[in-house]
Amino acid sequence: MKDTLISVRNRALRTVYKWILKPILFQFDAELIHDSFIKIGQTIGKSVITRKISSFFCNYKESSLEQNIASLNFVNPLGLAAGFDYEGRLTETMPEIGFGFETIGTITNYPYGGNIKPRLGRLPKSRSLLVNKGFKNLGIHKTLENLVGKKFKIPVGLSIGVTNTSSLSNQKEAILDIVNAFKVAENYKIPFSYYELNISCPNLQTSVEFYSATNLEELLSAVTKNKLSKPLFIKMPIDKTDTEVLEMLEVILKYGVTGVIFGNLQKNKQDPTLDPKEVALFSKGNFSGKPTEKRSNELISLTYKTCGGKIIIIGCGGVFNADDAYKKIKLGASLVQLITGMIFEGPQVISDINLGLVKLLKKDSYKNISEAIGKD
Ligand SMILES: Cc1cc2nc3c(=O)[nH]c(=O)nc-3n(C[C@H](O)[C@H](O)[C@H](O)COP(=O)(O)O)c2cc1C
User: Fold this and answer.
1) CATH assignment of 2-372?
2) Closest ligand 1 atom, residue 319 Cα
3) Domain map of the chain by residue range?
4) Predicted confidence (pLDDT) at residue 207 exceeds the cutoff of 80
5) Does the C-beta of 319 come closer than 6 Å to ligand 1?
């Protein structure tokens, strides 16, 4: 009965979003809409009444979706990926929308004003977003200062990357920059549940890369030198070969990293899921959404087959519905993250996916989502 009512509620919201809100919102500049939504979302989060209203319209809870992973409790496996709530303004609102966890950032040691516009664009036919922000952020001090005193209802993680500046010209400087950001995060005592180390942003000025086993080893040895107080996840690229990824995983396992996230944006403009006419509208940037899905799934599967049980996998890329999320879970992901699906489908997609997952679990006779992990 409860699920039928939620299903009817979601269908109504989906219709309003698809036929009224989205056609209006998609007329305006994507970055302007994103910034406006952050402001609205932050306002909603400030009052108990607006939080309760959001929860009434969007939330959905079911015990078969609950898991304990890395000693953290997740009410459901669906998280907001890094890049939507850069400054942690939505930490009160996202649990009411129905997310089981969220990542703030990516934040860097020093602030960065963002790459030259357009930094965000829509590719509706490709079901993708053009992203060229390049870690636009306030810097770690300012960001964390704004979060002092906050308590989080769901696990909230902090994504850290290298400062986007050409002045960090070599590997040592880049590593020091990242290590310093981790030190600041550890000192602030904000109740983050985990860290993400983003080594895979394709929109940076620096020529330093951490993809080779040697470079990654140097980075991880420095970051983990002083034991971190929270689990560490590495945000992985999706444009590397299987062999390269396996070499990276070998290093990652050596340093006791809790998990990996597959993965970041699609760099390949020739990817068959991208509409060439839409791609031609943008000279710089990389792509989210459906163009990331296939390779994300392949790498989840590869990692589960080779390192399953030794490392936690978070699946990210192209999740628009419950089938997409379930596929990642059955390939080996314990948790799933998204951004683009929410922008194209509307905020009710979170409870839609969770509701759909419950149905899929029942169909496969699983009592809890954890039983489905890696079953394909
Ligand atoms: C607007 C936008 C900004 C992003 N910024 C970041 C970022 O700062 N750090 C990061 O690790 N990933 C970032 N990403 C990548 C997403 O976290 C995610 O890996 C990718 O979009 C694939 O997921 P999706 O298809 O559900 O959007 C960004 C994505 C989008 C759409």
Assistant:
1) 3.20.20.70
2) 26
3) 2-372
4) no
5) yes
